[in-house]
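Reply to thread "Modeling small-molecule complexes from scratch"

Following up on the discussion above, here's a worked example others can learn from. I took a protein sequence and the SMILES for zinc ion and predicted the complex. Inputs first:
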Amino acid sequence: MDFDKSYWKQQSREHWKFYCPYCGTQRRVAFQPRPQAKHYFQILLTTFAFTTAAWNWLSFKGIVAFIPFWAVFEVIYRFRVRAALACDQCGFDPYLFLVDQNRAKVEMEMHWRKMLQKKGVPFPEKRKSGRVIKEPLPTASESTPTSTASVPPTNF
Ligand SMILES: [Zn+2]
C-alpha cells in the first residue's frame, strides 16, 4: 500500500458521476466531495448556539468551539462520502479497489452473500480449483430460517 499518495487531492466540487466498472450501472454519488458553504454556515450556527448555552462558563471564548465542531463535521462528512462510493447493485467500491484489490473482492463477495441471503438463495461456494459446488452449504440456510422456508427455489 502506498501511504504517500493521497486519493483525496484531485477533487472537483461537482457530484461524482461515473459508470460502475463492474456492473455498468450509472452512478451519481449523493454527496458532493467536499462540504459546501451551507455546511460551514450550519457549523457557525451550532457554534453560536453552543456559545450562548455555555456563556456563563466560557463567555465569548466559546466561539473557539467552531474549530472542533468543524473538524468533527469534516471527518463525518468525508466518511459518508467515502461510504457512498460503493455500488448498490454489485458492491464494487472503486476507492477500495485502488487501495487494496483483495479487500475489494472480499467486500463484493460479502455484498453478494447478503443479497442472495435476502432472496433465500445459497451463495455458490467455490472449491480451491475454482469449480462451483452444486449443493448448498448448511451455513447459508441456517442464518435465515424464515426467509428460506417461504421462498421457492425457482424464484431467483
Ligand atoms: Zn456496480
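What I'd highlight from this example: The chain is about 50% helix and 5% strand. The helical segments are 37-53, 55-58, 66-83, 94-99, 101-119, 138-142, 145-150. Questions welcome below.
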